[in-house]
Amino acid sequence: MKEYSFLVIGSFLAFTANAQFKNQETKQFQVKGNCVNAKELIENAGNQPRISKVNFEASTQVASITYNKAKTNSNEILRKVALAGFDNTEYMAPDEAYAKLEKDCQYSRDKKMVMNHQEMDHSNHTSNESSLQQNQLSHVFDAYFSLKDAFVKANESEILEQITAFSKSISTVEMSKLSHESHTIWMEVLNDLETTSKQLVQEKNIEKQRITFAKLSKPMYKLAQKTNLGYTIYYQNCPMFNGGSNWLSKEETIKNPFYGNMMLTCGSTVETLK
What is the pTM of this model? Predict the structure, then answer.
């Protein structure tokens, strides 16, 4: 009876492992990983039950990715692989993620790996179109400034609208269209932006939203330091809100998003980014 039970369980697990996804699509990509644990780390980073399955072949450094294209895409899966520390044809891993790998897992990095893919992807575009693509992050800043202005007005319905718009702006960034420098910094801040954005979406109290907005301003400041938007950004501080909080503004004039009209001009510019 026990042998029969094990046989049934084993057959079920085998069936589950080999079951196809709905809306299935399979693609192959080069992924850098040559240590003993690379296969496990890369596959764990990309595998999602009933959504995606990654099979990494260490000898060829090729990952075969099968996924439900109605729920995810290959770029999203490869981004997670990069965040785990492994460069691939779409994304360079953040330096801090790469540094966390065990020494035997730290491979020889080739920045041309992603850059060559980008060049092939854009070979049919004009220089003007390429400039627009390289400035993919501008709409993220536009959404951030609109959210900041909504907090200044203390307009709760507009705040909710702009929170949604900001969250969408993050998800619509096409990383393959970023310059190498923008790609690197975006990978460094993306996890913090996504986490804080989700907290904003879930929070309904305006004062708690403002605390989260201050947290959001930290990765946005880091992004602003490395992004050329073609205009000046002012990094400003309110010493009174939550022990001292910062925000970014396109205006030099102080318009405090943490207090609005109650203390509109409370604060000062601590850094000017050009």
Answer: 0.65
